[in-house]
Amino acid sequence: MDSKKIIADAFRELARSTPIDKISVAAISREAGLSRQVFYSYFIDKFDLSIRIYEVEFAPIAQKHRDGVMTWNESGIEHLNIYARDPDYYRNVLSSFDPAGLRSHLTKRMRDEFKYKCERRGAVFDNEEMDYALRAVVGTINELTYAWINRGCPEPPEELVRRFDLCRPFILAPYLEDTDSTTAQDIARDR
Hints:
Blueprint: H1 3-15, H2 25-32, H3 36-42, H4 46-66, H5 72-85, H6 87-93, H7 102-120, H8 128-150, H9 157-166, H10 184-190
């Protein structure tokens, strides 16, 4: 097994029982049986590690979305299914409000993707009202997701995605219909 995977597995095991803000690189390295130097040869810090684990785990969903095989709602359901399979890990990793953490990373990523989707459908973000609406929808979806994980994922993911649809601000509703897929790759290509 390669060192990156050993480190990721060790971190994941620690994060199932400990919030990320209380986990040190020394503890991750100790759990992995590797030196801190080996850790730093692969990752900037524990937050970088958590983001990379997320990116690897969610890559198949992103690819399906990119290929147009999966809608936004289907992608949301698949994301929630992954969270539900390991809720203790995700509860502890998403508990941090550190700007370098996974929670901040997901908020920025979702905001960029939603904004791109809206702009592609004709929305113009030239005023505070549109920007505020976008921040509101992203914040609400994220908070609903974090609350759902913290409660142990009691409802089926489909129910939570239905609630997401109810949270669309009126001003953005026409731009956020679930009729096509928009991806980070689309965003990068169009910029």
